[in-house]
Design a protein that fits this description.
about 45% helix, Trna Endonuclease, Chain: A, domain 1, about 160 residues
């Protein structure tokens, strides 16, 4: 009888030990401070490339009565119509962005602008551009594509207004 008591105590102690180890594992796994380095590895960088900066200032000068927004998430411009699964459709565009969005002073969208360079040539990028084009057209928003090699002058930009 003493032996069976010893076995029972050993089993309970073993289960308690495993449970304690599992709880310790969960605490370490989900404690954010335990996984993060002391200093976060970020640095500040320019949000616009040199050609984008040139185009931005030309747009601002050419369209003084409009808002010129840079690096805008597509999901901030396009919404999902009622009756459709928001998450399914929004997930198709949620990682896409426009280089520029031109708005009236009231915030309504006039056009979105993409500045194309050689990074738009690979097939994978072309697919992403086609998806962006399709979504933008479906919403009735004008999407203008300009080549970085042939930036338009201010006169051509005024045609957007």
């Amino acid at each position: 009888m003493q032996f069976s008591n010893f076995v029972s105590i050993a089993i309970v102690a073993g289960i308690a030990f495993l449970l304690l180890a599992f709880v310790a594992f969960l605490v370490r796994r989900f404690a954010s401070d335990a996984r993060e380095p002391i200093a976060w590895p970020f640095y500040s960088k320019k949000p616009l490339t040199q050609p984008e900066q040139v185009l931005y200032w030309r747009l601002v000068k050419a369209l003084p009565d409009h808002l010129v927004l840079a690096q805008v998430q597509v999901s901030r411009v396009l919404g999902v119509r009622r009756g459709f699964n928001f998450h399914d459709w929004n997930n198709r565009i949620n990682r896409l962005s426009y280089d520029f969005v031109i708005c009236k002073k009231d915030g309504s969208v006039v056009a979105a602008i993409e500045l194309d360079d050689k990074t738009h040539e690979p097939a994978m990028r072309a697919e992403r551009d086609a998806k962006k084009q399709r979504a933008t057209e479906a919403a009735g928003v004008i999407l203008v594509r300009w080549s970085v090699a042939k930036l338009p002058d201010e006169t051509a930009m005024r045609s957007l207004a």
